[in-house]
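Journal club prep — side note

Before the paper discussion, L.F. wants everyone to see what a predicted structure for a comparable chain looks like in token form. Sequence:
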Amino acid sequence: MSDQDPLNGLLDAVQSGLKAHFGAGLKQCARHPGRFDAAELERHGAHAPAILVALLGIGPGAEVASGEVDHALRLGAFVVAADVGRTDRDVLAAGLVGTLVTLLPGQVWGRDDTHPVSARTIRAQNLYASTRGRGIVLWGVEWRQDIRLGTSDFESWPGTLAGIVVRGPGGETVTWGGIGDG
């Protein structure tokens, strides 16, 4: 993860987190550039079950006191499932989607610049089902993840805060010396 490349860093962290959580239950957990067409979906079906992570959009930003900006990202995890042995693709997809929607709330993916996922922002939808040859199911799980971007104005502050002088209850001078720069 790079401070200079926070979006790719977040996508890598999401992919790593999902890969660690689902482990051997997936044949593939990778990043994906976005939405699918039917031909591409058929290719990914060969690597099913799979979860493919994508950045779907970036909402308007809101400035914060530090000078940085919080942006609302629309992230997606596409679940691709095919029949595995005696397990039907619909059953497999429902299990993966159900696990995803319970895993996402509160996630920050080990990052300081990312706000927790709110359960209110999670949506899942069945996007595609094929019965040709090897049947494939595609589900999309989408959520909002706020990320803080930019450089903090506070990083340029001096190492010592100015001392504060106040009058105590008896009129005596009370001095607070601040924090030293070590």
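L.F.'s comment for the group: Residues 6-177 form a domain with the STM4215-like fold (CATH 3.30.2000.10). Keep this in mind when we get to the figures.
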